[in-house]
Amino acid sequence: MSAELGQISLILALVLAALLSVLPLVGAQRGNEALMKLAPSLAIGQFVFLAGAFAALAVAFLRHDFTVSYVAMHSNLLLPWYYRLSAVWGSHEGSLLLWMLLLGGWMLAVAAFSRSVPRPFTARVLSVMGMISVGFLLFILFTSNPFERILPGPIDGRDLNPLLQDVGMIFHPPLLYMGYVGFAVAFAFAIAGLIGGKVERNWVRWSRPWTLAAWSFLTFGIALGSWWAYYELGWGGWWFWDPVENASFIPWLIGTALIHSQAVTEKRGAFPAWTVLLSIAAFSMSLLGTFLVRSGVLTSVHAFANDPERGLFILVFMGIVTGGALTLYALRAPRIMTGEGFDWVSRESALLLNNVFFTVSAAMVLLGTLYPLIIDFMGWGQISVGPPYFGAMFILLMTPVVLLVPLGPLTRWKRDGFMRVVRPLATAAIVSIVAALLVCAWLESWSLRAVTGWIGGFWLIGGAATFGLRTARASRSGLARHQWGMVLAHAGAGVFLIGAAMVEAHTFERDVRIAPGETVEAAGYRFTLHEVVEVKGPNWRADEARFSIHRGDREITRMAPQKRHYHRGGQTMTQVALKPGVFRDLYVAMGEELGESGAWSIRVHIKPFVRWIWGGAVLIGLGGLIAASDRRYRGKRKARESAPAAAEATA
Amino acid sequence: MTPTRKKRLAIVALLVLGVGAAAAVAFTALNDNMLYFVSPTDVHAAAAPEDKQIRLGGLVAAGSVQRDPDSLSVRFTVTDGRHDVPVSFEGILPDLFREGQGVIAHGRLNQDGHFHANEVLARHDENYMPPEVMKSLESAGHPPEASKQ
């Protein structure tokens, strides 16, 4: 029963989305208040029906309704309830429903928190988002319906992919999608601005908190995915430059450029056309990411069983969205006003450089990701691009960024002197080099990567601190939230850099054969295997290896990695044992049993500072959220340029 | 030309130069890191480059996996139904490595047609078949059963 309710809810959501994409827009063009006022109600209605559809699917999972084919494919009687719930977005159909629900959620938020924005503008924004909704709802209903029945239903279902039976997987897709979908808001604001015909500073101010929030969620989502891959895939890497990872990283890079170019456009009115273009690009790249993941055109460790028809649909949809947006841009861009000029040394120039490096990086990742497709399409053979390409290019492009980041915030708008900017950073520069050398001496790690990583990391943190202290001293009220956010995010980048450099430079990795009673030595740690026993879980049984780990004479910890065998589907999965630490992780994964001797192949890693990678990413994301919550983006602004907007909103 | 225009021109010129340089570096790096995909039939036809890192894809031949009980060495055969390539690997195989299933191995081919893998690729989903492997199996006349669901 619930499946039919879900299906009906989806159709009703589609009807409301269709109305939303037309009526408020017409109202805004004709100045019809009544039609414009429909926008928030339609957005709320759409969200309610989407939530209903989502709940219906969740209920089908919780109640083991195996007549719903999606449930039968991805759940079974033994699956614990929390994984049955996360199985809702565990595969294609349901994850699209989640995508849609989150889009509905963002629309609800836009409808609720846009009191300070003039009504015609909100109406246009919600209409544009309504159009996106229509596209995705059609996609779900026609190619990926999660409510399809099979009658008679099987007695028991198959299984949720064991890799997804994990707490990281419960949160990773929702966060990542919050980011992906959130860029639809920035996109809609830009399009609404273009439709309205007067792209000016105001739309950028209204758009900024949304863009920042979306970008923060994307940051969290990517970090969580990296952490999940680290402990769940059993090979201990944190980033693989895999096509699907790239698909989420490209929008992130564009988004990073966008939040910085928005700052210039809002404050100085410079690069308005560029900001519009980036808003369009960020969402288009999110759609491209969805296409790459869902169509399966690329070989990827992430690729799931797939369907070319779906890929085609998304590709066409992407063509319409991007093509339509760019056409509108071409028609309206000449009318976009340009801001005041600026000097070589100025905040504008600094942020321009940021944009150049981040968009070129995005283009570089995009090129490497799509290159195999291009080569294949031209009939030149089947190739893939190795991770060293991405690694080398990324280091090349990000080195100048690391050097320049501390300079940017200290530079004045419009015109500044180079020495005036550099002087206050002299302390930070000296301190970061000395501190880095001291740390490296203490850790006895003298590789080029480690040393430059520490210097770069301390330089970023020191630069952020310098800006924070100077600003706090200069103003009586201390740092504003958006400044706090920036300080935190830039320092977070430093923390991330240190983690990444240390892991890449000094990871200890060994695959060995070990029998009970034997000991493996790894970077000063001794791993002793005591026994391999069989243990049971709710829907699996496992071989569990019991290790004790000694350093010197002291036992540090015990570790118990598992090799799990899932009852349904018969899949095998490696469950890594981890001993996390601020300065290093111990990591043991089981390979397979070697012959009858009771010996196993195991993988031992010592990962220095690996937590700093995700810690840094979390700081970056938190910085974004704190900046998004700044009061200057909300409510009535006292500043001169938004006075008419406020008047209009209260009218 | 006004000073503003001059400055703009300079900025644009710099940008074009920078992006051009970046593109040149990118394409060089791309060509250095390209991994060619080969099927067992390509290997047999001597169409695969020797002593260069390549990707070999196909099915793990049934009954071909041999494990050395005293080390981490594994030998198996990759087949596309028409031709076989013997593969040796030292290390831990991914969880979804099975006889009769699709596999992609990274490594080098030596002169007598033996493939030394340094990486055997894992997948996330047991129903998933890498598109290259699908194509090569189809062209060898052996579309895999597993991919039809």
Describe the model:
Chain A has 20 helices and 11 strands. Chain A is of the alpha+beta class and 651 residues long. In chain A, the strands form 2 sheets. In chain A, strands 3, 4, 5, 6, 7 and 8 form a 6-stranded antiparallel β-sheet that branches. Chain A has a 4-stranded antiparallel β-sheet with strand order 2-11-10-9. In chain A, helix 10 packs antiparallel against helix 11. The relative contact order of chain A is 0.09. With 149 residues, chain B is an alpha+beta fold. Chain B folds into 2 domains: 3-33; 36-139, Nucleic acid-binding proteins (OB fold (Dihydrolipoamide Acetyltransferase, E2P), Beta Barrel), CATH 2.40.50.140. Chain B has helices spanning 3-32, 40-44, 131-139; strands spanning 34-38, 54-60, 66-67, 73-79, 84-90, 102-109, 115-120. Chain B is elongated, with a radius of gyration of 22 Å. Chains A and B meet through helix 12, strand 1, helix 13, strand 2 and strand 8 of A and helix 1, strand 1 and helix 3 of B.
